[in-house]
Design a protein that fits this description.
Structural class: alpha+beta
CATH class of the largest domain: Alpha Beta
Number of domains: 2
Largest sheet: 5 strands, mixed
CATH superfamily of the largest domain: MutM-like, N-terminal
Strand order of the largest sheet: 2-9-5-4-3
Radius of gyration: 20 Å
Strand content: 15-25%
Order of helices and strands: HEEHEEEEEEEHHHHHEE
CATH architecture of the largest domain: Alpha-Beta Barrel
Number of strands: 11
Length: about 270
DNA sequence: AGCACCACCTGTGGGC
DNA sequence: TGCCCACAGGTGGTGC
């Protein structure tokens, strides 16, 4: 489900809705959703903590509290929603309820159960235990110079696999990677080391633009994604290649679907070199 | 290094 | 029409 623009959409909403609120005791409908610490300790330590700020690193939502940091990763079908009256919109896939002292609540639901929550004590534990293998945020922490340097360290990698690699840089997922490679006319199988300086610059610009557009449109709802208010995104109507197998590119060539890096990959075999 | 594959889950849509 | 299986916005582990 969620890539960087979807998580950023949720981050912005929650920042406006729940900053300053204090957690009461959570309800763990599915305790294995809690990755760290043990479920009981998670509940004890979260209770009474106040939300100060919402950050994001790649696809990780990082919620700064007065005495710790709550981290949420939605994986494929996770959803974090705000409810003013405290009741969940939907009971079926509800995994964790996080009520506030004023009667409102956040509810974490997840059909496929891949998503996880962590509660850590400080920045150091966040980096060493949760974000250990996560690279810099592709939107906020990578400028052109840094991007070129990172590319230089991974010359043999195919770009589709490289952009999906969260250790290279964090935030790109399957949809936005295909859209960005289409925008800069680069083939998903190209190796990073074969890019000219100008192609690498175009790729960087395409990444920044496609992510900014995704955020502007509130993310992409291809199937399951919902924002913190339960509403769908609208970037799906702007997708040029993803999900458009057989449809004509603006050059007239049908969009092809292949498998790259283990993921369904859409591209124009004529435009993308 | 980099890549292919499997596992984790549940639902659904396309093909036969 | 109905059934089945390949596949789905992600990631971590294994083995080549």
């Amino acid at each position: 489900m969620p890539e960087l623009p979807e998580v950023e959409t949720i981050r912005r909403e929650l920042e406006a809705l729940v900053c300053g609120k204090t957690f009461t005791e959570p309800v763990l409908h599915m305790p294995s959703t809690i990755k760290r610490p043990a479920a009981e300790e998670f509940s004890t330590r979260l209770t009474g903590q106040r939300i100060e700020r919402f950050d994001r690193r790649g696809k990780y939502l990082v919620i700064n509290l007065d005495r710790g940091i709550l981290v949420v990763h939605l994986r494929m079908t996770g959803n974090l929603s705000y409810s003013a009256n405290g009741l969940p919109y939907e009971e079926r896939f509800l995994r964790v309820s996080l009520p506030f002292s004023d009667g409102s609540a956040l509810h974490y639901s997840d059909m496929r159960r891949f998503g996880r929550l962590w509660l850590v004590e400080d920045e150091e534990e966040l980096e060493t235990e949760v974000l250990k293998r996560i690279g810099p945020d592709i939107l906020n922490e990578v400028d052109l110079e840094k991007f070129l340097e990172l590319l230089g360290r991974r010359e043999r990698s195919r770009l589709k696999a490289l952009l999906l690699d969260q250790g290279f840089a964090a935030g790109m997922g399957n949809i936005y990677t295909d859209e960005c490679l289409y925008r800069c006319s680069i083939h998903p199988r190209r190796q990073a080391g074969t890019l000219s300086r100008s192609e690498a610059e175009d790729l960087y610009a395409a990444i920044q633009e496609v992510l900014a557009d995704g955020i502007e449109y509130g993310g992409t709802t291809f199937r399951d994604y919902r924002n913190a208010s339960g509403a769908i995104g609208s970037f799906q109507s702007k997708l040029a290649v993803y999900g458009r197998k057989g449809e004509k590119c603006r050059c007239g060539t049908p969009i092809e679907k292949t498998k790259e890096a283990g993921r369904g990959t859409y591209y124009c075999p004529n435009c993308q070199k």
